[in-house]
From TrEMBL:
Domain (SPOR) ranges: 352-414
Keyword Transmembrane listed: yes
Matching Pfam families: SPOR
Native source organism of the sequence: Mucilaginibacter aquatilis
TM segment ranges: 253-272
Ranges of biased composition (kind: Basic and acidic residues): 279-289
Domain of life (superkingdom): Bacteria
Protein name (database record): SPOR domain-containing protein
Keyword Transmembrane helix recorded: yes
GO molecular function, one term: peptidoglycan binding
Amino acid sequence: MDLSVYISELLNERGNIGIPDIGVFKQVRKRGYYNAEEGKLYPPYFATEFEQTTVSDDVLLQYLTEKSKVSVSSAKFFLDRFVQNTLQQAEIGEARIGNLGWLSKEVDTLHFRSASETTEATAAFGFAPVSLLKKGPESSAAQSTEPKLDAEPENSATASEETIQPVPVTFSIEKELGKAPEALNESPVAKPQTTTSISPLVRQPKPVQHKAEQPAPVVPQPQPEVPQVQKTEALPVADNNDEVPARPFYMRLPFYLGLVLVIAAAAVIMILKNTANDNTRKATDHSEKASPSMDSVKVNTPAPSDTVIIKAPAATDTVARNTALPESTEYAPEVETPTVGARTVVNSNHYNYVLVGGSYGTLELAKAASERYKAVGIGASPFENSRKLFKVALGYYPTYTEGQEAKKQLVKQGKVLNWKLYVETLRK
């Protein structure tokens, strides 16, 4: 931001302006004066003067804030930096203050030199300098020496003609021979002189050749022999313009073949994966729909009638007994009863791993499965470990390894199939 422009504007408006830490600039009216050397009368004018004094007002700060549309703190920052730079330049040499002049510093005193000379002062009242004639013999001599512009030169035509005429050139024999002729008693003889004049060069026209005249024959001049260079016939070159330019790799047949193979391989992999998932799903559904397995026991109770008919289960669903039947029931059919004492599994220790015995879509199915596990003497309880499925917990364990060991023990007992059991992390 050039603050000297704002200083000049404010000085023209107010007539004086104070700059902190520098001083006060004033516009002082000067009288008109006469310059004897130039012979001109100059009108009154205003000159800028400087006085080094303490400035306490903030007129310049407010003017900067209004004109540049900045805050007071920003305007004060720019003003302080301007004052600091001006004082530093004044100590080195001279500091320019816009079109007002220059400041210089000697010890602690500031000196101001105005930018406008007195002879080139600005007219403040609309008058221009007036030229006056000097008095005395000097002015008359100056008037006499001035050329007359209105007078026309005399005999201008004759003068021009004399300059155009050619100048004669004289030729003297005495000068060329370097000696004078002998003196005779007779009357002196005039020395011969020759006079030549410069004449313009005249071109003579070429003689006209008539039709009957034949031009002179041109005699051929011998020319130097030029060594002959044997020309070698160039071998025929096959025209390659018919060749098709090389196509990019993505337009060639191998690229398309490879792309087709990749797509076919991806399709085969997807089909095999879907087939395997379908087979697994079918096997799971079939196992769930099949007859009760070893993890469930079907108990048939006798119907209320005179004759008791008890249907024994199939041989594969029987549960081995450790004690022999009494003799009174030796010939009576066996009645399978569920093992009493199967517990409900509870995660009282807040373990992180659970042994899962199956997952179902509804809570009722999970409860039914847990009851079947309890029927064969395996503790179970339904729980929800995901948003969509309900699962059957066969036990909670602190580590994954302990869960796997419990799974192996159940499989060894022959009560549960291996593929139905798995260990997973319990989600909290």
